[in-house]
Specification:
The chain has 19 helices and six strands. By secondary structure, the protein is of the alpha/beta class. Bound molecules: fe (iii) ion (FE) (2 copies).
Amino acid sequence: MERIGIYGGTFNPPHIGHMAAAQQAIKLLHLSKLLLIPDRIAPHKSLPENSPTPRQRLEMLTIAAAQIPQAEISRVELQREGPSYTYLTVEALKQQYPNTELVLIMGTDMFLSFDSWKNWKWLAQNVTIAVLYRGQKGEQAAIKEKRDTFCALGAHVELVENQVTAISSTDLRRMLTFGCAEPFLPKGVWEYIRENRLYGVNKNLRKLPMEQLEQEVISLLKSNRIAHVLGCRDTAVELAKHWGADPVDAARAGVLHDITKALDGPLQLTLCREHGIILDAFFTENPKTLHALTGSVVAERIFGENEAVVNAIRHHTTGCAHMSLLEKIIYVADYMEPNRDFPGVDELRRLAFTDLDGAMRLGLEMTISMLQANHAQISKASLEALASLKQSSKL
Ligand code: FE
Ligand code: FE
C-alpha cells in the first residue's frame, strides 16, 4: 500500500530543521509523498505577536519545499475555519487518499502529549504514528512507555531516530533579531523574509526609548529569566544612584545584560561566527559564559548602545582587570538582585552599598571557589579582576 506522510506545523518560519526532518522522514519511512501542512490556528499554542499571515507562511513553505521533490503542500488546514485539529485533517485526507497508509509525523514533545489531542484514540487507530526522536537517554524510556500504551490500544507507532540538529522556531526568531538567522533558513526563505520585512528584520532597534527597549528584550528572553533581568535592572539603578554612576546606562545595561542567554552553546557559537567574534580557548570550552560576549555585541550592533553599557554587559560574568564603576555595578547587581538566593547573598547585598569593591571581591571569590569545587576552568579575566581589586585596595 502506498504510504503518504503528514507533516503539520506552524512553520513560522520554515527552517532547515523542518526540511531536514522532512527529507529524513521520506527516506526512513519509505514515503511516496510527504504532505507539508501549515496550520491555520495551532491547537497547542498561540502565535507570537507580529507573526506573518497564514498566506505568508504558506509562501515561505512553498519556497522551502521546492527543493524536496516528494514534498507537496496541502492547504487543508489553512482553508478550514477554527482550530487546526489533526483528526479533522486526517478525516479529510482519508477521503482524498483512499487505500493509502497515512503516516503522521511528529516530534518527541508532540508524541508525549499525544493523548491530550482531540479525538486521539480515533486518530491512533486511523494513522501510523511516526516519531522523530533525538535519541536522548532520558527521553527514550518515556517514548517507549508511551508507545507501549498506545500500541495496546491498537495504534501503530514507528520510532525513527532523528540525526538532524534542529533549531526551534522560537530560537530562529531570536537569531533573526540578532542578525544571524541566514544559515538556518532554506534557500530563498531569508530573501522572502527580508523583502517582506517579516519578524521585524528591518526594524531599527538602535537607541530605543527605555519602555520600548524593555518590551523588545522581554520578547527575546525565556519567560523564567524575565524576573531576574528586571531585578538586575532595578538593583543596578539603585546602585548607580548610590555610587554616582549614570542610572540610565545602569538600567539599559541591566535590561540587556542577558539578552542572548536563551541561546544554547551551538547558537552562541553561530552568533560569534556571524558577527566575526574571535574566541579564545576559555570561551569555546565554556559556552555558558559566551552570552556576556555575544550580548555585548548584540547590544552594540543591534541596539546601538554606548560603550559604557556594552562593556558592562561584556564583563558581567567574568569581570576584568580595572573595571569601570558601571561594570562593577552590573556584575554585583546580577549577583545580588532580589531573586537571587544563596548562602552569602546577604553579606553581598550589605557590602554593595558600603564597599562596592568589597562586594566585587566577594562575588569573584565565591564564583572562583565554586568553579574550583566543580573542577571547572576559571577564566583569566576573573583572576585578573580579583588581582586588580586587591592591588587597588592596598593603594
Ligand atoms: Fe548573565
Ligand atoms: Fe544575569
